[in-house]
Structures are given as C-alpha cells and as structure tokens.
UniProtKB/TrEMBL annotation:
<keyword id="KW-0067">ATP-binding</keyword>
<feature type="binding site">
    <location>
        <position position="211"/>
    </location>
    <ligand>
        <name>ATP</name>
    </ligand>
</feature>
<dbReference type="GO" id="GO:0005524">
    <property type="term" value="F:ATP binding"/>
</dbReference>
<dbReference type="InterPro" id="IPR003812">
    <property type="entry name" value="Fido"/>
</dbReference>
<feature type="binding site">
    <location>
        <begin position="253"/>
        <end position="254"/>
    </location>
    <ligand>
        <name>ATP</name>
    </ligand>
</feature>
<protein>
    <recommendedName>
        <fullName>Fido domain-containing protein</fullName>
    </recommendedName>
</protein>
<dbReference type="InterPro" id="IPR036597">
    <property type="entry name" value="Fido-like_dom_sf"/>
</dbReference>
<dbReference type="InterPro" id="IPR036390">
    <property type="entry name" value="WH_DNA-bd_sf"/>
</dbReference>
<dbReference type="InterPro" id="IPR026287">
    <property type="entry name" value="SoFic-like"/>
</dbReference>
<keyword id="KW-0547">Nucleotide-binding</keyword>
<feature type="domain" description="Fido">
    <location>
        <begin position="124"/>
        <end position="275"/>
    </location>
</feature>
<dbReference type="InterPro" id="IPR025758">
    <property type="entry name" value="Fic/DOC_N"/>
</dbReference>
<feature type="coiled-coil region">
    <location>
        <begin position="274"/>
        <end position="301"/>
    </location>
</feature>
<dbReference type="Pfam" id="PF02661">
    <property type="entry name" value="Fic"/>
</dbReference>
<dbReference type="Pfam" id="PF13784">
    <property type="entry name" value="Fic_N"/>
</dbReference>
<feature type="binding site">
    <location>
        <begin position="215"/>
        <end position="222"/>
    </location>
    <ligand>
        <name>ATP</name>
    </ligand>
</feature>
<feature type="active site">
    <location>
        <position position="211"/>
    </location>
</feature>
Length: 381
C-alpha cells in the first residue's frame, strides 16, 4: 500500500480500477518543516479575521450575505450558473431558465444554516453528514440520487460520457467506502496533534477521495471544512468560506488532490490549502472593512436628514440583507402604502444609496448598488 492508499482491480467480469484510501494521519507523517511558513501565514491572516469578526457590530449581516456568496461559489464549482444577483433578485421566479440553478443555491443556503444549527446538537459524524446532504438535495436536480443516504453503488469522476472504465478517478467500492468513512470519523474525533488547519486540509481531501454520495460531495466537503474549524474553535464565526479561491484555482484544486492519490504527496496539497485559507481570510477581512465603512457612511447620511418617520431608516436596514428590492415587496413586508414606500425610495435615491435597475414605472427594481458591488465581486459566471 502506498502512503495515501492503493489502486485495486475489481474481480467482476467487467473489472475496473478503484482507489482505496489509507486512514489519516499520513504515514510517514507530514513534513511540517516544509509547511511551517505557510501555516504561520494562514494562522496570522485567520487571527486578524477572527479579531475583526468579534468587534464589528454588524457581523450578523455579513454572515447572512457571506453564506449566500459561498453557496453561489461552491455551486458554481459544480457547474451551476446562478450568480449572487440571481439569488437576491426579488423577480427571479419569472426567469424560468435560471430558476433551477437558483433553487440549487437556495438549497445550499438552507443546508448551511441547518448544518450550523445541527452542529450545536450533534458531533461531526456520518449521521450528521447524511442529514446535511438530505437538506442540500431536497427537491432539486439530483434528488433521485438518494438524498441523505450514502451510495449503494459505484460512482466515478470524469468528463461527461465517461464510464467507470475510462473515468479520471474511481472512488472506493461501497465496502471500502464504509470502512474509510468509519476511519475518517475516528480521525475527526481523535487526538491528532497537527494544527487544526492542517487537519482540515487532510479531512477535506479524504472526504472528496471517499466520495460517499452519488451527488453533492463537493458542496458537502467544502461545508465540512467550516464545521470542523468551528468545532475546533479555530474560527469564532462561520466567515471563512474558501470557494472563491478554489474557484479561481479550480484546476489546481483538483490536480493537487489527485496528486495525493497517485504519488502520496500530501505536503503540496496541504500547502495549497493553507494558501487558499490565507487569501480567503485576507479577502474576507478587506471586504468586511469595506462594507462596514460603507454602512457607517450611509447610516450617517440618513441620520443627518432627520426624517419624520422611520421608513427610510427601516428600508435601509432591510437593504443590508436584501440589496435588491421592489416597491411592491417593500409595501408588503412593512405593511405600508405605495406612496410611503415610493417617497422613502426616492429619498434613498437622492442620497445616492439606491438606484433603479429596471426601465419604466412598473415593477421597478432598486439596487443598493455600492453594497452589492462589494459583495458580488467574483461571483459572476
């Protein structure tokens, strides 16, 4: 058996090669001298993000939007075409062409929130992952692929049209998968002294290598990173979402994991993962600072005007979670007349806070454009 596992041939009439992973941690153990500088940089960047997340008063707003951004990007890695603006668009139900992609991303958001709540009741385990997968796959494309159940048949990874014989990678058989999952669960709750960021890299690789579901493995595997780091208290809030950097480096992401299987080179995969964490933490820190500054400026603009009613202020606070709005939607949400809402929107336009994104006077959509521009960076397909 190699350092990371072994390739085996099945004994069926139409035989094929599959990969059976070795249990974690790697043996021989990781060369931490090779990784120490990269780990130090990642820890420092994450420390700054943690500090910021503890002192920013609007952190719940940022988390609300970051979960949506991660859902978009993680789904885009799997081929979904929806953008962040699509998810936030109050009129998206009219766009039948994009609706299926949007529904998949909305499911990811639901699954993420569900997982964060479930983590307060259950430890990370096979049962936990199945519950999250069930939420992820409910009612969308792939729902015929056993939501909430580990696979009972062989799967494989490769270009469209590939077979188990021609696939780029064939995960372990069902029997080997069950053994590998049990070993992974033991590792997650074990006493490994490696830094939790390094452990997170190994756990993500191992989960993707096992590929226990017929569909949705990538999305569950990336969510597992956050859940593990929260459990280990490496991050204080669920704000480190790495799909943006993984999407930017998608080929290297897959190639580094494949190299572990073929050559046993865990070090280069862990190094890549830690670099992704560093870039992600720095980017998140920068974005939160930009958004926080914008919110302070715009709240001050509204405060200086001393409007008679709180409608303008209330709509502004609503925009922080829903930066694309319609007059109809606002009237319904606040239970106010169209005249009041129209006047408030006009005042927000005059302050340069919102702009109309549709033509004409019917079904108008307004955007908190500067806010959305900061959030939307790199989520366009």
């Amino acid at each position: 058996m190699g350092r990371s596992g072994r390739y085996e041939e099945t004994r069926e009439r139409h035989s094929y090669r599959y990969f059976a992973p070795s249990p974690l941690p790697p043996n021989p153990e990781l060369n931490m001298n090779e990784l120490s500088n990269t780990l130090a940089e990642a820890s420092e960047a994450l420390g700054r993000l943690n500090m910021l997340s503890e002192y920013i008063p609007d952190m719940s707003i940022f988390l609300y939007q970051y979960i949506r951004k991660e859902a978009v990007l993680s789904s885009q890695i799997e081929g979904t075409q929806a953008t962040l603006e699509d998810i936030l668009d109050p009129e998206i139900a009219e766009n039948k062409e994009k609706l299926k992609d949007v529904e998949e991303v909305v499911n990811y958001i639901t699954a993420t929130n569900f997982a964060l709540e479930l983590a307060e009741q259950l430890p990370l385990s096979s049962r936990f992952l199945k519950e999250v997968h069930k939420e992820l796959m409910a009612g969308v494309r792939g729902q015929e692929k056993n939501p909430g159940e580990f696979r009972h048949s062989q799967n494989w990874i490769g270009p469209q049209g590939s077979t188990v014989a021609t696939a780029k990678y064939v995960p372990p058989t069902v029997q080997e998968m069950e053994k590998a999952l049990s070993e992974l669960e033991s590792y997650i709750h074990g006493t490994d002294t490696l830094h939790p960021l390094v452990q997170a890299a190994l756990i993500h690789y191992q989960f993707e290598t096992i590929h226990p579901f017929l569909d949705g493995n990538g999305r569950v595997g990336r969510l597992l990173i956050i859940l593990f780091l929260l459990e280990k208290e490496v991050i204080k809030t669920p704000v480190l979402y790495i799909s943006l950097e993984l999407k930017r480096n998608q080929f290297e992401y897959y190639d580094r994991m494949m190299a572990v299987r073929t050559t046993g080179n865990y070090e280069q995969w862990v190094k890549f993962f830690l670099e992704v964490v560093t870039h992600t933490a720095k980017n998140a820190t920068k974005k939160i600072e930009q958004l926080s500054k914008l919110i302070d400026v715009d709240r001050a603009k509204i405060g200086e005007k001393r409007y008679r009613s709180n409608t303008v202020k209330n709509i502004y606070e609503f925009l922080l979670k829903h930066p694309l709005v319609t007059v109809n939607g606002l009237a319904e949400y606040f239970d106010l007349g169209f005249v009041s809402i129209n006047n408030a929107i006009r005042q927000l336009e005059e302050l340069g806070i919102v702009i109309q994104t549709t033509r004409g006077k019917r079904n108008r959509v307004f955007s908190y454009a500067k806010y959305l521009e900061i959030l939307e960076d790199d989520t366009l397909v």
